[in-house]
Specification:
alpha+beta; M1 Pyruvate Kinase, Domain 3; seven-stranded mixed beta barrel; 4 helices; catalytic activity; pyridoxal phosphate binding; MOSC domain-containing protein; MoCF_Sase_C
Length: 290
Protein backbone atom coordinates (compact mmCIF):
# COMPACT_ATOMS: atom_id res chain seq x y z
CA UNK A 1 0.00 0.00 0.00
CA UNK A 2 1.38 3.42 -0.91
CA UNK A 3 1.36 6.24 1.64
CA UNK A 4 -1.39 8.83 1.79
CA UNK A 5 -2.54 11.85 3.75
CA UNK A 6 -4.87 10.29 6.32
CA UNK A 7 -6.11 13.43 8.10
CA UNK A 8 -5.67 17.20 8.42
CA UNK A 9 -6.08 19.26 11.60
CA UNK A 10 -5.79 22.88 12.69
CA UNK A 11 -5.92 24.46 16.15
CA UNK A 12 -7.02 28.08 15.67
CA UNK A 13 -6.48 28.90 19.36
CA UNK A 14 -3.22 27.50 20.68
CA UNK A 15 -3.87 24.60 23.10
CA UNK A 16 -7.65 24.66 22.66
CA UNK A 17 -9.57 21.98 20.75
CA UNK A 18 -8.76 21.47 17.08
CA UNK A 19 -10.77 21.20 13.88
CA UNK A 20 -10.63 18.16 11.58
CA UNK A 21 -10.55 19.17 7.91
CA UNK A 22 -10.99 17.39 4.60
CA UNK A 23 -8.85 20.00 2.82
CA UNK A 24 -6.71 22.98 3.77
CA UNK A 25 -4.53 25.68 2.22
CA UNK A 26 -0.82 25.41 3.02
CA UNK A 27 1.98 27.95 2.68
CA UNK A 28 5.34 28.51 4.39
CA UNK A 29 3.54 29.61 7.56
CA UNK A 30 1.67 26.28 7.81
CA UNK A 31 -2.02 25.52 7.42
CA UNK A 32 -4.41 28.46 7.16
CA UNK A 33 -5.78 29.65 10.54
CA UNK A 34 -3.58 27.25 12.53
CA UNK A 35 -2.59 28.67 15.94
CA UNK A 36 -3.24 32.26 14.93
CA UNK A 37 -4.87 33.03 18.31
CA UNK A 38 -3.57 32.41 21.81
CA UNK A 39 -4.53 32.90 25.45
CA UNK A 40 -2.10 34.96 27.52
CA UNK A 41 -1.89 35.75 31.23
CA UNK A 42 -1.51 39.16 32.86
CA UNK A 43 2.19 39.23 31.92
CA UNK A 44 1.58 38.39 28.26
CA UNK A 45 2.88 34.84 28.55
CA UNK A 46 1.23 32.03 26.62
CA UNK A 47 -1.19 29.65 28.35
CA UNK A 48 -1.52 25.97 27.46
CA UNK A 49 -3.01 22.70 28.64
CA UNK A 50 0.25 22.01 30.46
CA UNK A 51 -0.99 24.19 33.32
CA UNK A 52 -4.68 24.54 32.43
CA UNK A 53 -5.99 21.21 31.04
CA UNK A 54 -9.54 22.63 30.92
CA UNK A 55 -8.46 24.47 27.76
CA UNK A 56 -9.09 21.15 25.97
CA UNK A 57 -12.82 21.73 26.51
CA UNK A 58 -12.82 25.02 24.59
CA UNK A 59 -14.06 23.90 21.16
CA UNK A 60 -13.31 25.86 18.02
CA UNK A 61 -15.07 26.19 14.66
CA UNK A 62 -14.68 28.37 11.57
CA UNK A 63 -18.06 29.35 10.22
CA UNK A 64 -19.38 32.23 8.13
CA UNK A 65 -16.48 34.59 8.68
CA UNK A 66 -16.15 34.00 12.41
CA UNK A 67 -14.13 31.89 14.81
CA UNK A 68 -16.74 30.33 17.10
CA UNK A 69 -15.72 29.20 20.58
CA UNK A 70 -17.89 26.99 22.77
CA UNK A 71 -17.31 25.68 26.29
CA UNK A 72 -19.46 23.86 28.88
CA UNK A 73 -21.86 26.17 30.68
CA UNK A 74 -21.34 29.19 28.44
CA UNK A 75 -23.09 30.66 25.43
CA UNK A 76 -20.99 30.49 22.23
CA UNK A 77 -18.52 33.29 21.55
CA UNK A 78 -17.95 34.59 18.01
CA UNK A 79 -14.74 36.34 16.97
CA UNK A 80 -14.64 37.97 13.50
CA UNK A 81 -11.96 36.56 11.21
CA UNK A 82 -11.48 39.92 9.49
CA UNK A 83 -9.85 41.48 12.54
CA UNK A 84 -12.54 44.15 12.90
CA UNK A 85 -12.59 43.78 16.70
CA UNK A 86 -8.83 43.73 17.23
CA UNK A 87 -7.17 46.39 19.37
CA UNK A 88 -5.44 49.10 17.38
CA UNK A 89 -2.23 48.85 19.38
CA UNK A 90 0.30 46.05 18.92
CA UNK A 91 1.76 44.38 22.01
CA UNK A 92 4.52 41.84 22.54
CA UNK A 93 3.54 38.40 23.86
CA UNK A 94 5.77 35.47 24.80
CA UNK A 95 5.82 31.93 23.39
CA UNK A 96 8.71 30.02 24.94
CA UNK A 97 11.87 31.97 24.01
CA UNK A 98 10.13 34.08 21.37
CA UNK A 99 8.53 37.49 21.63
CA UNK A 100 5.75 37.84 19.05
CA UNK A 101 3.77 40.95 18.01
CA UNK A 102 0.05 40.46 18.61
CA UNK A 103 -3.17 42.39 19.01
CA UNK A 104 -5.85 41.73 21.60
CA UNK A 105 -9.34 40.67 20.61
CA UNK A 106 -12.39 42.48 22.03
CA UNK A 107 -12.52 42.47 25.87
CA UNK A 108 -15.68 40.36 25.78
CA UNK A 109 -13.57 37.48 24.46
CA UNK A 110 -11.20 37.79 27.40
CA UNK A 111 -14.13 37.99 29.83
CA UNK A 112 -15.66 34.82 28.32
CA UNK A 113 -12.42 32.86 28.55
CA UNK A 114 -11.58 34.14 32.02
CA UNK A 115 -15.00 33.10 33.27
CA UNK A 116 -14.59 29.58 31.93
CA UNK A 117 -11.03 29.02 33.17
CA UNK A 118 -11.57 30.79 36.49
CA UNK A 119 -8.54 33.03 36.10
CA UNK A 120 -7.75 36.27 34.27
CA UNK A 121 -6.60 35.79 30.68
CA UNK A 122 -6.83 37.52 27.31
CA UNK A 123 -7.31 36.35 23.74
CA UNK A 124 -4.75 37.73 21.28
CA UNK A 125 -4.18 37.23 17.55
CA UNK A 126 -0.79 37.19 15.86
CA UNK A 127 -0.17 40.49 14.11
CA UNK A 128 -0.17 40.43 10.31
CA UNK A 129 3.32 41.92 10.28
CA UNK A 130 4.80 39.35 12.67
CA UNK A 131 7.84 37.49 11.32
CA UNK A 132 8.63 34.53 13.55
CA UNK A 133 11.15 32.14 11.97
CA UNK A 134 11.36 28.43 12.69
CA UNK A 135 14.15 27.22 14.98
CA UNK A 136 17.18 28.12 12.89
CA UNK A 137 19.58 25.67 14.50
CA UNK A 138 17.44 22.69 13.51
CA UNK A 139 16.66 24.03 10.03
CA UNK A 140 20.37 24.64 9.39
CA UNK A 141 21.28 21.17 10.65
CA UNK A 142 18.79 19.67 8.20
CA UNK A 143 20.12 21.79 5.31
CA UNK A 144 23.69 20.71 6.01
CA UNK A 145 22.69 17.07 6.14
CA UNK A 146 20.64 17.28 2.92
CA UNK A 147 22.33 19.89 0.68
CA UNK A 148 20.83 18.30 -2.44
CA UNK A 149 17.31 18.94 -1.09
CA UNK A 150 17.83 22.28 0.63
CA UNK A 151 17.22 24.87 -2.09
CA UNK A 152 13.38 24.88 -2.05
CA UNK A 153 13.48 25.29 1.73
CA UNK A 154 15.76 28.33 1.88
CA UNK A 155 14.52 31.50 3.53
CA UNK A 156 12.49 32.14 6.66
CA UNK A 157 9.61 29.89 7.61
CA UNK A 158 7.33 32.19 9.57
CA UNK A 159 4.26 31.08 11.46
CA UNK A 160 1.94 31.99 14.31
CA UNK A 161 1.89 30.73 17.89
CA UNK A 162 2.93 27.09 17.37
CA UNK A 163 5.75 25.96 19.65
CA UNK A 164 8.55 26.20 17.10
CA UNK A 165 7.68 25.14 13.54
CA UNK A 166 4.92 25.64 10.95
CA UNK A 167 3.83 21.97 10.87
CA UNK A 168 3.62 18.90 13.06
CA UNK A 169 3.39 15.59 11.20
CA UNK A 170 2.54 12.25 12.84
CA UNK A 171 2.88 8.73 11.46
CA UNK A 172 -0.22 6.56 12.02
CA UNK A 173 1.97 3.45 12.26
CA UNK A 174 3.80 5.02 15.21
CA UNK A 175 0.54 5.60 17.07
CA UNK A 176 -0.49 2.01 16.33
CA UNK A 177 2.78 0.79 17.84
CA UNK A 178 2.37 3.00 20.90
CA UNK A 179 -1.17 1.72 21.44
CA UNK A 180 0.04 -1.88 21.17
CA UNK A 181 2.58 -1.14 23.91
CA UNK A 182 -0.10 0.49 26.05
CA UNK A 183 -2.40 -2.52 25.60
CA UNK A 184 0.40 -4.89 26.62
CA UNK A 185 0.63 -2.99 29.92
CA UNK A 186 -3.13 -3.03 30.46
CA UNK A 187 -3.68 0.60 29.50
CA UNK A 188 -6.37 1.97 27.18
CA UNK A 189 -5.34 3.11 23.70
CA UNK A 190 -5.07 6.84 23.05
CA UNK A 191 -6.51 8.66 20.02
CA UNK A 192 -4.48 10.75 17.64
CA UNK A 193 -5.88 13.99 19.06
CA UNK A 194 -3.67 13.57 22.14
CA UNK A 195 -0.71 14.54 19.92
CA UNK A 196 -2.32 17.52 18.18
CA UNK A 197 -0.86 16.95 14.68
CA UNK A 198 -1.49 19.03 11.60
CA UNK A 199 -0.89 16.18 9.15
CA UNK A 200 -1.27 12.44 9.70
CA UNK A 201 0.26 10.03 7.18
CA UNK A 202 -0.43 6.32 6.82
CA UNK A 203 0.78 3.61 4.45
CA UNK A 204 4.27 2.41 3.71
CA UNK A 205 5.81 4.49 6.50
CA UNK A 206 6.83 1.98 9.16
CA UNK A 207 6.54 2.84 12.85
CA UNK A 208 9.04 5.60 13.74
CA UNK A 209 10.52 5.77 10.25
CA UNK A 210 9.87 9.49 10.57
CA UNK A 211 13.13 9.47 12.55
CA UNK A 212 14.91 8.64 9.29
CA UNK A 213 12.87 10.58 6.74
CA UNK A 214 14.31 13.70 5.11
CA UNK A 215 11.20 15.05 3.42
CA UNK A 216 7.86 14.21 1.87
CA UNK A 217 5.82 15.29 -1.11
CA UNK A 218 2.23 15.53 0.11
CA UNK A 219 -0.10 16.12 -2.80
CA UNK A 220 1.30 19.30 -4.42
CA UNK A 221 3.44 20.32 -1.40
CA UNK A 222 6.97 19.51 -0.31
CA UNK A 223 7.74 19.48 3.40
CA UNK A 224 11.05 18.84 5.17
CA UNK A 225 11.22 16.97 8.45
CA UNK A 226 13.73 18.99 10.44
CA UNK A 227 13.25 18.04 14.10
CA UNK A 228 11.70 15.24 16.19
CA UNK A 229 8.81 16.69 18.18
CA UNK A 230 9.56 16.73 21.91
CA UNK A 231 6.63 15.95 24.16
CA UNK A 232 5.47 17.47 27.43
CA UNK A 233 2.44 16.54 29.55
CA UNK A 234 -0.25 17.56 27.02
CA UNK A 235 -0.62 14.04 25.50
CA UNK A 236 -1.56 12.87 29.01
CA UNK A 237 -4.67 15.11 28.90
CA UNK A 238 -7.87 13.43 27.71
CA UNK A 239 -9.10 15.87 25.06
CA UNK A 240 -12.75 14.97 25.67
CA UNK A 241 -12.79 15.27 29.47
CA UNK A 242 -9.69 17.41 30.27
CA UNK A 243 -8.68 14.77 32.84
CA UNK A 244 -4.90 14.50 33.15
CA UNK A 245 -3.15 11.19 33.86
CA UNK A 246 0.33 9.80 33.30
CA UNK A 247 -0.21 7.89 30.04
CA UNK A 248 0.93 7.73 27.31
CA UNK A 249 3.77 9.92 28.56
CA UNK A 250 5.19 7.34 30.95
CA UNK A 251 5.26 4.65 28.27
CA UNK A 252 6.75 6.98 25.66
CA UNK A 253 9.51 8.03 28.04
CA UNK A 254 10.56 4.41 28.43
CA UNK A 255 11.39 3.88 24.75
CA UNK A 256 11.22 7.19 22.84
CA UNK A 257 13.82 9.30 24.65
CA UNK A 258 16.12 10.61 21.91
CA UNK A 259 18.57 13.52 21.65
CA UNK A 260 16.00 16.33 22.13
CA UNK A 261 13.96 14.51 24.80
CA UNK A 262 10.85 12.31 24.72
CA UNK A 263 9.70 12.49 21.10
CA UNK A 264 6.67 11.54 19.04
CA UNK A 265 6.00 12.92 15.57
CA UNK A 266 8.16 15.31 13.60
CA UNK A 267 8.28 19.09 13.12
CA UNK A 268 8.36 20.26 9.51
CA UNK A 269 8.94 23.28 7.31
CA UNK A 270 7.37 24.00 3.92
CA UNK A 271 9.02 24.57 0.53
CA UNK A 272 8.65 27.88 -1.29
CA UNK A 273 5.05 27.51 -2.41
CA UNK A 274 2.09 29.78 -1.83
CA UNK A 275 -1.45 28.68 -1.29
CA UNK A 276 -1.26 25.04 -2.34
CA UNK A 277 -4.26 22.97 -1.32
CA UNK A 278 -3.94 19.69 0.57
CA UNK A 279 -6.75 17.14 0.63
CA UNK A 280 -7.31 14.05 2.72
CA UNK A 281 -6.38 11.10 0.54
CA UNK A 282 -3.59 12.93 -1.31
CA UNK A 283 -0.70 10.63 -2.23
CA UNK A 284 2.47 10.95 -0.17
CA UNK A 285 5.98 10.22 -1.39
CA UNK A 286 8.57 9.81 1.36
CA UNK A 287 12.31 10.28 0.99
CA UNK A 288 14.08 8.17 3.62
CA UNK A 289 17.66 8.77 4.71
CA UNK A 290 18.62 5.57 6.56
Amino acid sequence: MSSRLLSLHIYPVKSCAGIDLTEAVLDRAGLAHDRRWMLVDDEGRFMTQRQWPAMALIRTALDGGVLRLTAPGLEPLEVPLDGSELAESVEQVEVWRDTVPARAEHPRASEWLSRFLGRPCRLVKVDEQARRPARSEWVQRWREKHPDLAEPFEGDHVFGFADGFPLLVVNQASLDDLNARLAAQGHAPVPMNRFRPNIVIEGEWGAYEEDYTAMATVGPARIAFVKPCTRCSVPDVDQDSAVQGDQPGRTLAAYRTLEPGVVFGVNAIVAEQQGVRLRVGDPVELELDF
